[in-house]
User: Which sequence fits this backbone?
């Protein structure tokens, strides 16, 4: 093929201004973006042009979706063209329900299916408490998967892989989770050679010690039909790309009661005839106090003037 011809590829890793692109026949090469800014993310389908032993990205194809977070300072894109996001939390240490809700809201906003995986089911008492907290999410229709991920345990790998693979087969799944949730164990469960692959990518991109801050796409099967994207752990999850008045429709339990509101532009904070406030004050509340607090706190955060 002529060196000036545009060729298709899939972005499978990136660090700084370098990305690793995989061609349809499985070959991989380093590509650089055209211009000063790298606007590609893992999961992007791109058109690139060969230049010596590397390539230049000429175009990013239209995306089906983009999963990202945004705070007051910057936007952090995780990945594009996803089928689902698996949000991994752990029974111990206790997970943040606010952080979980933020990730779910971001997935809803991007119209990407979220799955919640609750790790450490082998810890009876902490897991029982955490599973009870998950009841409200199961009632909202979210799938909650119990896991007991243990590093370097062949039996555990076989059991948990058997539970996960039916959900992930022939899909592209972003694995998302805060530090300490067991994300590395989950990746190693699905991909026993993940560490070797990560080192290979790091060597190619010269990212070295920065490996853990990069995002990588791995194929789980030889046919390259099932992909897992490993993203960096996070402690904060900004939602500044979402308008405060859009928040209710992205929280299923709030949205379910908002249809009963007297006013179409109800903020669900103080208005008379608010279906959400009525559901919260009912003898048997239809919205949990914890979830409503997450809503009201987020509404206040997203209502602040942006400069």
Assistant:
């Amino acid at each position: 093929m002529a060196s000036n011809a545009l060729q298709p590829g899939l972005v499978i890793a990136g660090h700084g201004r370098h990305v690793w692109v995989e061609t349809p026949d499985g070959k991989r090469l380093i590509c650089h973006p055209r211009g000063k800014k790298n606007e590609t993310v893992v999961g992007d389908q791109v058109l690139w042009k060969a230049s010596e032993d590397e390539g230049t990205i000429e175009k990013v194809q239209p995306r089906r979706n983009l999963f990202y977070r945004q705070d007051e300072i910057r936007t952090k894109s995780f990945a594009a063209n996803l089928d689902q996001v698996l949000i991994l939390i752990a029974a111990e240490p206790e997970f943040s329900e606010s952080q979980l809700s933020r990730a779910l809201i971001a997935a809803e906003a991007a119209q990407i299916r979220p799955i919640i995986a609750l790790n450490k089911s082998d810890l009876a008492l902490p897991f029982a408490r955490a599973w009870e907290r998950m009841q409200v999410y199961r009632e909202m229709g979210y799938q909650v998967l119990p896991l007991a991920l243990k590093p370097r345990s062949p039996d555990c790998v076989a059991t948990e892989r058997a539970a996960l693979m039916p959900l992930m087969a022939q899909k592209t799944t972003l694995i998302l989770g805060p530090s300490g949730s067991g994300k590395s164990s989950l990746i190693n469960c699905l991909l026993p050679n993940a560490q070797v692959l990560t080192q290979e990518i790091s060597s190619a991109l010269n990212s070295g010690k920065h490996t853990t801050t990069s995002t990588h796409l791995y194929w789980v099967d030889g046919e390259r039909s099932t992909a897992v994207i490993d993203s960096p752990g996070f402690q904060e999850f900004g939602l500044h790309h979402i308008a405060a008045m859009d928040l209710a429709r992205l929280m299923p339990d709030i949205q379910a009661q908002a249809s009963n509101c007297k006013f179409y532009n109800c903020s669900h904070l103080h208005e008379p005839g608010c279906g959400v406030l009525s559901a919260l004050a009912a003898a048997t509340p239809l919205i949990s106090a914890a979830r409503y607090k997450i809503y009201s706190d987020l509404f206040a955060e997203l209502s602040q003037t942006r400069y």
User: Anything to note?
Assistant: The longest helix spans residues 154-168.
